Amino acid sequence: MKHCTFSFTTALGAAALLVLGHMPQARADASADLVAKGRYVAEASDCSACHTIKGGKPYGGGMEFKLPIGSIYSSNISPDPAHGIGTYSEAEFARAVREGVRKDGASLYPAMPFPSYARMSDSDIHALYIYFMKGVQPVAQAAPANGIPWPMSMRWPMIFWRAVFAPSVASAQKDVNRTFPTPAIARGAYLVEGPGHCGACHSPRGIALQEKALSASSGTAFLSGGAPIDGFVPTSLRQDQRTGLASWSEDDIVAFLSTGRNLKGESFGGMTDAVYHGTQHLTVEDLHAMAQYLRSLQPNSPNVAAWQYDPAAATALQHGDASARGAKVYVDHCAACHRTDGHGYAPAFPPLAGNPVVMSDQPDSLVHVVQSGAALPGMTKAPSAFVMPSYSQMLSAQQIADVVTFIRGAWGEQRLPRRCGNGHQPAEIRSPAGAGRKTRSAELNQRQRKVSGMVAGHRKAATDAQKETGAGSSPAPVLI
């Protein structure tokens, strides 16, 4: 009996030691898994694009955002205790991310997309906090001081801005849990409306710079296209004809989010940063979920007709007729990559025919790319990089205006047609002959003058930037 008791006790003790011996390793594995999840959430939230400057240490801050009232700089969000968030508790971290309130109680400027981050789940916030505290190296450097003059620099008015325009965490979470057609679309909505904060750029803003809609449940203004940012106009991500994603398949969207390019176009400006730092790292399942959600969004302008290709411009160019305004400039400088038929050599060189950026009512993006040049960096799934030269020193402002006007009018009158209050095109624009010709000519001249003014504005901005930085005569290439 004693022998049996001893054997049982010995076995029980050995089992206990075995379990206890594995507990530190289990905790280490769980911590590593949490850090990995937090890294993924950070990538889905595009944190690095704003908080890591080129050539700088990860999450050390210092990214400049130029606003009409001055410049602000992204903060250091590394776990450095003096200059970063190393002394933040998880509750303080969550409040900053989802409510826009710092540890000291001061308000964050809404350049930080906390109205979108309010939708993030507790588990994602927890993983994100663990990642920043355990998976990121401290960066012992202070971000530059903001350049907003007093009294605009005061933060206390943001208390009222948050109360009016930023959702509470509770209300945002309730909206996240609304009914969706499928679990995949629900997941896509969470990623797009929440951590992805796509609306911060792709939704219009009101007079107080608030997003007019924070989710699809708020109306069709959500993701219907944003205001110019750094010279580029974010397009509609809804199922809008011409200027949206109506002609893009689910696979087109997935390819774009994972590589910055597809058969329809290429990313530019801040969208390239979002792909490079963020969406290219997401799983295929999450990318398809985002694509399915975007394809579920009804158009903001349902009466716009689908674009139809018109070969007239291509036929003229292929027969040596470059008499149209801007056509010769296009043949000499653009056709080698984008072809006389406007179809390009996608995904290397994007098509211009049928491109939502080209058909936008605002030509800012096209002007900026032609004038400043562009570069698409290599991605994990598409390692080749492509560069478009800057034409600001090769072409005059008039030539740039002419070629942009030509591109926006070729291959099927790509510019979004003006419409009457009843949603129909004016008769003089519909008519291909007679009085319509005079109206079309006057309209073309008006469009060309608008583009000319925009070119001059972009050129002045580039010159001013060169004076400030001491750069040479050629403006720095812009990522596209």
From TrEMBL:
<keyword id="KW-1003">Cell membrane</keyword>
<feature type="binding site" description="covalent">
    <location>
        <position position="337"/>
    </location>
    <ligand>
        <name>heme c 3</name>
    </ligand>
</feature>
<dbReference type="InterPro" id="IPR036909">
    <property type="entry name" value="Cyt_c-like_dom_sf"/>
</dbReference>
<keyword id="KW-0732">Signal</keyword>
<feature type="binding site" description="axial binding residue">
    <location>
        <position position="51"/>
    </location>
    <ligand>
        <name>heme c 1</name>
    </ligand>
</feature>
<keyword id="KW-0479">Metal-binding</keyword>
<keyword id="KW-0677">Repeat</keyword>
<feature type="binding site" description="covalent">
    <location>
        <position position="201"/>
    </location>
    <ligand>
        <name>heme c 2</name>
    </ligand>
</feature>
<dbReference type="Pfam" id="PF00034">
    <property type="entry name" value="Cytochrom_C"/>
</dbReference>
<dbReference type="GO" id="GO:0005886">
    <property type="term" value="C:plasma membrane"/>
</dbReference>
<feature type="region of interest" description="Disordered">
    <location>
        <begin position="417"/>
        <end position="480"/>
    </location>
</feature>
<dbReference type="InterPro" id="IPR014353">
    <property type="entry name" value="Membr-bd_ADH_cyt_c"/>
</dbReference>
<feature type="signal peptide">
    <location>
        <begin position="1"/>
        <end position="28"/>
    </location>
</feature>
<dbReference type="GO" id="GO:0005506">
    <property type="term" value="F:iron ion binding"/>
</dbReference>
<feature type="domain" description="Cytochrome c">
    <location>
        <begin position="33"/>
        <end position="136"/>
    </location>
</feature>
<feature type="binding site" description="axial binding residue">
    <location>
        <position position="202"/>
    </location>
    <ligand>
        <name>heme c 2</name>
    </ligand>
</feature>
<dbReference type="GO" id="GO:0009055">
    <property type="term" value="F:electron transfer activity"/>
</dbReference>
<feature type="binding site" description="covalent">
    <location>
        <position position="198"/>
    </location>
    <ligand>
        <name>heme c 2</name>
    </ligand>
</feature>
<dbReference type="InterPro" id="IPR009056">
    <property type="entry name" value="Cyt_c-like_dom"/>
</dbReference>
<keyword id="KW-0408">Iron</keyword>
<protein>
    <submittedName>
        <fullName>Mono/diheme cytochrome c family protein</fullName>
    </submittedName>
</protein>
<dbReference type="GO" id="GO:0020037">
    <property type="term" value="F:heme binding"/>
</dbReference>
<feature type="domain" description="Cytochrome c">
    <location>
        <begin position="183"/>
        <end position="298"/>
    </location>
</feature>
<keyword id="KW-0349">Heme</keyword>
<feature type="binding site" description="axial binding residue">
    <location>
        <position position="338"/>
    </location>
    <ligand>
        <name>heme c 3</name>
    </ligand>
</feature>
<dbReference type="GO" id="GO:0016614">
    <property type="term" value="F:oxidoreductase activity, acting on CH-OH group of donors"/>
</dbReference>
<feature type="binding site" description="covalent">
    <location>
        <position position="334"/>
    </location>
    <ligand>
        <name>heme c 3</name>
    </ligand>
</feature>
<feature type="binding site" description="covalent">
    <location>
        <position position="47"/>
    </location>
    <ligand>
        <name>heme c 1</name>
    </ligand>
</feature>
<feature type="binding site" description="covalent">
    <location>
        <position position="50"/>
    </location>
    <ligand>
        <name>heme c 1</name>
    </ligand>
</feature>
<keyword id="KW-0472">Membrane</keyword>
<dbReference type="InterPro" id="IPR051459">
    <property type="entry name" value="Cytochrome_c-type_DH"/>
</dbReference>
<feature type="domain" description="Cytochrome c">
    <location>
        <begin position="321"/>
        <end position="411"/>
    </location>
</feature>
